[in-house]
Design brief:
Strand 7 and strand 8 form a beta hairpin. The chain starts with a strand and ends with a strand. The protein is built from no helices and 11 strands. The strands form 2 sheets. Strands 2, 4, 5, 6, 9, 10 and 11 form a 7-stranded mixed beta sheet that branches. Strands 1-3-8-7 form a 4-stranded antiparallel beta sheet, with no helix packed on it. Helices cover 0% and strands 47% of the residues. The protein is globular. By secondary structure, it is an all-beta fold.
């Protein structure tokens, strides 16, 4: 049984940094896409940053490009999201998600929630002074 183990998140002042980690326990395949979506109150869930395992193709939503960095470790079946220069609009619940379909691992990651078949429990990120 696959499940996602998340860590990180919390409260940070504007301009600060946080690191999120997500490990896919029980994952046996080397072909997957893993990353984070976020959801703010009253808003739809949006893809923030994702990484594909085969060639390391990445996706970043425009609002975080240049501030967030995603990295993957295939041996540990995990991903890390380094979030820098955080803004109040980055706040929300961040969900780790994984797409375990073989074909997805070869291309630029999808940012559609419906393409991801396992989800973590979510972690709160608050950006406030």
């Amino acid at each position: 049984q696959l499940h996602l183990v998340e860590s990180g998140g919390g409260l940070v002042q504007p301009g600060g940094s946080l690191t999120l980690s997500c490990a896919a326990s029980g994952l046996t395949s080397d072909y997957y896409v893993i990353g984070w979506f976020r959801q703010a109150p009253g808003q739809e869930r949006e893809g923030v940053s994702l990484i594909a395992s085969k060639y390391g193709h990445t996706y970043y939503v425009d609002s975080v490009r240049g501030r967030f960095i995603i990295s993957g470790d295939k041996s540990k079946k995990m991903a890390v999201l380094q979030m820098n220069s955080l803004k109040p609009e980055d706040a929300g619940v961040y969900y780790c998600a994984i797409d375990t379909r073989w074909a997805s691992a070869w291309d630029t990651p999808s940012n559609l929630p419906e393409d991801y078949n396992y989800w973590g429990q979510g972690t709160q990120v608050t950006v406030s002074s």
